């Protein structure tokens, strides 16, 4: 029976990660889906295992999202998804369309069922009858949900036309400005309305709100860099984070942050910086 399930693991994990933005939660959802497959009634008719598995993991993720909204009410700093880190420009191109931190944050603005319908249709090419079964709604209703979600995503999503090499070059300039603690160099890289979010689960140094505005973001980033230099030997490594250019920062060989850069043209529109130790371990452990 394991042979029946394993070919679907990657697809199921992809659905769960995009729904939840968490490597650990995606692992849990896949495991729970497999357990439910083994526990299902023997007389339950399953014509296509994939459809059953997709329906099950979609419903599990919707339930998890609803529960998480209650949990989030006690968090004291911005939430960011656990990033997927790679060194490969080729892999970055594959990830950029629907695994970037910016895209996952955009999905957070959609209601759970809206997010599920949009992802199943536009990312995983699931047909509307299957989406309707997964959500327990009519096909017509699912079409409307997907249409609304597409409109929101199309309106709010930023586009960067730069090549992977050009995006990496921006990340190298960003890393160099951090190493130099150079406010002016950072300002030149940022859009006027640039934003900075730090997700630290309350760790020291995490801002409790988004920092908005080019000058404020540049000062904050340079100030953090100065503090880190006093704490030990700092290294900034350029990577791709969910397909976006990014920087992994080490202090005395220990990862202390992962920064994903959301671009608008050739400038940085937003810096999404993960400080949460659990997310850092998960991201580096899954590094591709």
UniProtKB/TrEMBL annotation:
Q: Transmembrane stretches, by residue range? A: none
Q: Output the SUPFAM superfamilies linked to this UniProt entry.
A: NTF2-like (SSF54427), Sigma2 domain of RNA polymerase sigma factors (SSF88946), Sigma3 and sigma4 domains of RNA polymerase sigma factors (SSF88659)
Q: Which residues form the RNA polymerase sigma factor 70 region 4 type domain?
A: 102-152
What GO MF terms are annotated? DNA binding; sigma factor activity
Pfam families referenced in this protein's UniProt entry, alphabetically: Sigma70_r2 (PF04542), Sigma70_r4_2 (PF08281)
Q: Which range is the signal sequence, renumbered to this chain? A: none
Task: Domain (RNA polymerase sigma-70 region): give its ranges.
Answer: 6-69
What are the GO BP annotations of this UniProt entry?
Answer: DNA-templated transcription initiation
Q: Which residues form a coiled coil?
A: none
Q: Which Gene3D superfamilies does this UniProt record tie to the protein?
A: 1.10.1740.10, 3.10.450.50, Winged helix-like DNA-binding domain superfamily/Winged helix DNA-binding domain
Domain of life, per lineage: Bacteria
Q: How is the quaternary structure described?
A: Interacts transiently with the RNA polymerase catalytic core formed by RpoA, RpoB, RpoC and RpoZ (2 alpha, 1 beta, 1 beta' and 1 omega subunit) to form the RNA polymerase holoenzyme that can initiate transcription.
Could you tell me what this protein is called?
A: RNA polymerase sigma-70 factor
């Amino acid at each position: 029976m394991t042979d029946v399930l394993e070919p679907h693991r990657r697809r199921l994990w992809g659905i769960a990660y995009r729904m939840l933005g968490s490597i650990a939660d995606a692992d849990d959802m896949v495991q729970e889906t497999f357990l439910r497959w083994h526990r299902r009634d023997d007389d339950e008719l399953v014509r296509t295992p994939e459809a059953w598995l997709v329906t099950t993991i979609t419903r599990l993720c919707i339930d998890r999202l609803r529960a998480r909204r209650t949990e989030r009410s006690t968090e004291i700093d911005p939430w960011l998804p656990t990033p997927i880190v790679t060194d490969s420009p080729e892999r970055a191109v594959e990830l950029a369309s629907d695994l970037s931190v910016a895209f996952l944050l955009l999905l957070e603005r959609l209601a759970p069922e809206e997010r599920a319908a949009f992802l199943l249709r536009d990312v995983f090419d699931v047909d509307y009858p299957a989406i309707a079964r997964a959500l327990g709604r009519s096909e017509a209703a699912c079409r409307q949900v997907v249409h609304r979600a597409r409109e929101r995503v199309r309106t709010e999503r930023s586009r960067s036309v730069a090549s992977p090499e050009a995006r990496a070059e921006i990340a190298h300039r960003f890393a160099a400005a951090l190493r130099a603690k150079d406010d002016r160099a950072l300002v030149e890289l940022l859009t006027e309305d640039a934003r900075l979010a730090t997700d630290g689960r309350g760790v020291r140094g995490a801002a409790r709100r988004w920092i908005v505005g080019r000058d404020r973001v540049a000062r904050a980033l340079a100030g953090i860099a100065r503090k880190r230099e006093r704490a030990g030997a700092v290294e900034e490594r350029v990577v791709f984070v969910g397909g976006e250019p990014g920087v992994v920062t080490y202090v005395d060989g220990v990862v202390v942050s992962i920064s994903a850069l959301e671009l608008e043209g050739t400038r940085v529109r937003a810096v999404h910086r993960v400080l949460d130790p659990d997310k850092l371990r998960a991201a580096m452990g899954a590094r591709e």
